Structure formats: structure tokens, C-alpha cells
């Protein structure tokens, strides 16, 4: 059974703080890693898709890195704002699982103003 | 362009009742998926479809059936609802099943089975 772990489970920060969280996944047969952002009562939205070891992606104040050899990805948010409050989901794609996404349970971020 | 829509948004069922959740996408995507999301767990794949008229089982298919009669619609059925099926159900679609293809999600259906 594939296991994708996200930590921490939840995080409460003050506006302006920078924060980061982790997604851990099996390092064998790696194909891709997806990050999604899910706001309450809305649809999860794609943030990044990462495929190469050492890959770094950036979108505004949010960035992500990937280490496929050790099986983890970090998501960073610089200068958190209240509108960053959401659940951040990572999903792993392994070739032998038919390219389907296997999701972690998510990290819930709450940013207080 | 509405993207992926789901109906209904909320539903309460009694044990043993049946219902159908409808997912529609207007992006001409070939691939569609049904997931369930439970507290403390990741999204889990129930069933998926790689094209009109085809469906396949995902990770947690028991108690559910699906149909894809039209390319733009993917239906999820519960024949005899059980309290264990209380969950938030998400539909998603993608252009292909390449590992880098983004899945586009609907807003979810919150189902409670009493």
C-alpha cells in the first residue's frame, strides 16, 4: 500500500510569518509529485507538478522543492497572508499504480491577521 | 467555462437509501475520477474512467457503482447507503493520464448517511 505522509497536520501562524511543510513519499518508481491548494467550500486547485530531482517551482510567495532520492518535497510560503489559509495537499504518482494520484492527508494552514 | 461541477452539494440519506451523484465537465477531458475525502485521510480514489463507456475500480470501490454514458458526465451511485459512506465526494477530470497532467476538481458533495 502506498503511503504519502504530510507534516505537520496543522499549522497556525501570524500574518507575515514564513512557513514550510513536508510531503514524504516512496522514493522508488517515482513519476511525479503534485501540490494542490484546497480552500474550505471550494475545489482543490493545482499549485505545482514536479518531476525532476532537485526541481524548484515558484508561484508568487509560494515555492516548492523536490528530492526524489530521499522521497520528500517541501512547500514554502513566504510572508503568509490570511488568504493563504487553506489545506495544502500533495499527491504522488508512481508508475506501477497506473499514473493515478495518491494523496496525503494534507496540512491545514491558518494565518491570523 | 464552468470547469467541473457536481450536484447535489449536500445530501442526507437514511441507511439503505440509494442516490446518484452527478459530475459534469466542459473541458472535453477524457479522464474522470471519483474520490472520497474523510477526516485525517487523503483523497481516496473510488472509481475512474478513461473514456466514454469505460470505467475501472480505484482504491475503495466497494458499495459504489459508476457510469460514463457521455464523455462530459460521470455518475457515482450508492445502491444501499451505509453510515460508513458518510464523506465528502469529489469529482475530478484530466486531459490524459500522463503523470504530469493536472486533475481539475469539482467543489465536492457532502453526504451524510444516518
How does this structure look, described?
The complex is a heterodimer of chains A (113) and B (114). Chain A is mainly β. Chain A is 0% helix and 56% strand. Chain A is globular and about 40 Å long. Chain B is mainly β and 114 residues long. Chain B is built from no helices and 11 strands. The interface between A and B is medium-sized, with 27 and 23 residues.
Mean pLDDT of chain A: 93
- Main interface by residue count: A-B, 27 and 23 residues
Number of strands of chain A: 11
- Spans of chain A of at least 5 consecutive residues whose pLDDT stays below 50 are none
> What gap, in angstroms, lies between the N and C termini of chain A?
40 Å
- Write down the overall geometry of chain B: globular
Shape of chain A: globular
Write the H/E string of chain A, N to C.
Answer: EEEEEEEEEEE
Largest sheet of chain A: 6 strands, mixed
The ordered string of helix (H) and strand (E) elements of chain B is EEEEEEEEEEE
Topology:
The complex is a heterodimer of chains A (113) and B (114).
Chain A (H helix, E strand, L loop, with lengths): L4 E3 L2 E5 L4 E6 L5 E9 L6 E6 L5 E4 L2 E6 L4 E6 L8 E9 L6 E3 L3 E6 L1
Parallel strand pairs in A: 2-11
Antiparallel strand pairs in A: 1-3, 3-8, 4-5, 4-9, 6-7, 7-8, 9-10, 9-11
Chain B lengths: L3 E4 L2 E4 L5 E7 L5 E7 L6 E8 L2 E4 L7 E3 L5 E6 L8 E8 L9 E2 L3 E5 L1
Parallel strand pairs in B: 2-11
Antiparallel strand pairs in B: 1-3, 3-8, 4-5, 4-9, 5-6, 7-8, 9-10, 9-11
In short, what is this structure?
The complex is a heterodimer of chains A (113) and B (114). Chain A has strands at 5-7, 10-14, 19-24, 30-38, 45-50, 56-59, 62-67, 72-77, 86-94, 101-103, 107-112.
Structure keywords:
heterodimer; A: mainly beta; six-stranded mixed sheet; B: mainly beta; seven-stranded mixed sheet; four-stranded antiparallel sheet
